[in-house]
Write a structure and sequence with these properties.
The chain has one domain: Alpha-Beta Plaits, CATH 3.30.70.20. The protein is built from two helices and two strands. The protein is globular, with a radius of gyration of 11 Å. By secondary structure, it is an alpha+beta fold. The protein has a two-stranded antiparallel ribbon with strand order 1-2.
Length: about 55
């Protein structure tokens, strides 16, 4: 895990943030639009966004 945080920068609603202690990104799911920008922009394919069934 590189911890590059491209996903944090690519999120249009800023629902991703960085845990400074663990040096990993975390998502605030209740704010996510499920636009998949973080998944598409991730250079290492470290993110897989699962869209909730009722939002499909």
């Amino acid at each position: 895990i590189s911890g590059c945080h491209v996903c944090v920068d690519s999120c249009p609603v800023d629902c991703l943030a960085t845990d400074t202690v663990r040096r990993k990104a975390y998502m605030k799911y209740d704010e996510c639009w499920y636009c998949l920008a973080c998944e598409v922009d991730c250079p290492t394919n470290a993110i897989t966004v699962k869209i909730p069934f009722l939002l499909r």
